[in-house]
């Protein structure tokens, strides 16, 4: 049974943008389904922020078409603006206001009215664990609290599509996990998330689909699993109960690397179901019993490197 196909929240064809003679987006196509998380990855300077700024109506574009939440980006920018939220590198938090004042100000901008605005602010302060800090100036907030306030401010307008530009850069692991949880809850409620991140682990955790941008073009689009299967390095590890089993399997499977001490074989594989089924069929036909099977797929760092020739930013940082 297949579920009804969801609608596009973001549909982009042939999007182009240059700054002077520098082409940053050289004909980008994207289709992001409603209620999913889409992550745009790419090396520094690849054009991720430019894409977010264009799709969120902050800057214009030179060619192509885009529909956001059903509205044409060029023809109906106000309708697009009303349907989206943007948060990330360019934070909307005003340091001279308290958390609560920031939220009430946002509610005013959305014409919610005093009572409704206050109610919404209180609800968001609670949801983002900021009630205790509500009357403190935002300038005293930690990085994690600030990001939460920023996202809470974005949610005042009840956006259907949210652009998150590097939402967890610089956050400690606990704050990052809290942000991930919030993002998951938003998606579960039907919101569409467009995420840029320099942490491939974050894209892997959150994204239903990922696109990799390099030198103005999308060099790959797919689910995290599809992208990982597309690069070499994947293998299946088989462990056997005794040396006889290991020997028999090595003979049956041919080109594999073996570890006699651990009684394991490492079989190159994309880790997909058809490949696994074929492998198990061969073993069964040869009447060989396997004690344990594990699939090892390359991680997104391997994908990123294979596609762009650059290590990911987060990897580079630890070098
Ligand atoms: N307003 C601008 N004027 C001129 N060049 C710009 C402008 N904005 C961005 N660029 C250039 O466009 C390219 C893409 O920048 P962008 O910030 O979109 O990249 P990014 O992928 O988000 O990078 P990062 O991960 O470093 O944030 C860069 O070479 C940048 O210098």
UniProtKB/TrEMBL annotation:
Keyword annotations of the record: Antibiotic resistance, ATP-binding, Cell membrane, Hydrolase, Membrane, Nucleotide-binding, Translocase, Transport
InterPro entries attached to this UniProt entry: AAA+_ATPase, ABC_transporter-like_ATP-bd, ABC_transporter-like_CS, ABC_transporter_ATP-binding, DrrA, P-loop_NTPase
Domain named ABC transporter: residues: 10-240
SUPFAM superfamilies xrefs: P-loop containing nucleoside triphosphate hydrolases
Membrane topology annotation: Peripheral membrane protein
Any one GO biological process: doxorubicin transport
Pfam families (UniProt xref): ABC_tran (PF00005)
Gene3D superfamilies recorded: P-loop containing nucleotide triphosphate hydrolases (3.40.50.300)
GO MF annotation, one: ATP binding
Cellular component, GO annotation: plasma membrane
Keyword presence, Transmembrane: no
Subcellular location: Cell membrane
Main location: membrane
EC number: 3.6.3.-
PROSITE patterns, sorted: ABC_TRANSPORTER_1, ABC_TRANSPORTER_2
Family of the protein in this entry: Belongs to the ABC transporter superfamily. Drug exporter-1 (DrugE1) (TC 3.A.1.105) family.
PANTHER family reported for this sequence: ABC TRANSPORTER ATP-BINDING PROTEIN, DOXORUBICIN RESISTANCE ATP-BINDING PROTEIN DRRA
Name of the protein in its database record: Daunorubicin/doxorubicin resistance ATP-binding protein DrrA
The organism of origin for this protein: Kutzneria albida DSM 43870
Lineage of the species this protein comes from: Bacteria, Bacillati, Actinomycetota, Actinomycetes, Pseudonocardiales
């Amino acid at each position: 049974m297949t579920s009804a196909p969801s609608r596009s929240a973001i549909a982009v064809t042939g999007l182009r943008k240059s700054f002077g003679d520098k082409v940053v987006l050289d004909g980008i196509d994207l289709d992001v389904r409603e209620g999913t998380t889409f992550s745009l990855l790419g090396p520094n300077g690849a054009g991720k922020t430019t894409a977010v700024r264009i799709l969120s109506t902050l800057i214009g574009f030179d060619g192509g078409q885009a529909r956001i939440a059903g509205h044409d980006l060029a023809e109906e920018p106000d309708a697009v603006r009303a349907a989206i939220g943007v948060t990330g590198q360019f934070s909307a938090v005003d340091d001279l206001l308290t958390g609560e004042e920031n939220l009430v100000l946002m509610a005013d901008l959305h014409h919610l009215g005093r009572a409704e605005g206050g109610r919404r602010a209180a609800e968001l302060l609670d949801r983002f664990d900021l009630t205790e800090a509500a009357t403190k100036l935002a300038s005293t907030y930690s990085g994690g609290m600030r990001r939460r306030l920023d996202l809470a401010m974005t949610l005042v307008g009840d956006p259907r599509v949210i652009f998150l530009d590097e939402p967890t850069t610089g956050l400690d692991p606990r704050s990052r996990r809290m942000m991930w949880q919030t993002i998951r809850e938003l998606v579960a409620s039907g919101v569409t998330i467009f995420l840029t991140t320099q942490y491939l682990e974050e894209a892997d955790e959150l994204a239903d689909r990922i696109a990799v941008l390099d030198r103005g073009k999308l060099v790959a689009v797919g689910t995290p699993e599809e992208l990982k299967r597309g690069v070499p390095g994947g293998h299946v590890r088989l462990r056997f109960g005794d040396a006889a089993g290991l020997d028999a399997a090595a003979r049956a499977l041919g080109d594999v690397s073996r570890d006699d001490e651990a009684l394991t074989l490492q079989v190159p594989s994309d880790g997909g179901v058809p490949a696994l089924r074929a492998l198990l069929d061969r073993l069964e036909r040869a009447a060989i019993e396997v004690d344990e099977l594990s699939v090892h797929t390359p991680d997104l760092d391997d994908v990123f490197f294979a596609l762009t020739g650059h290590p990911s930013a987060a990897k580079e940082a630890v070098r």
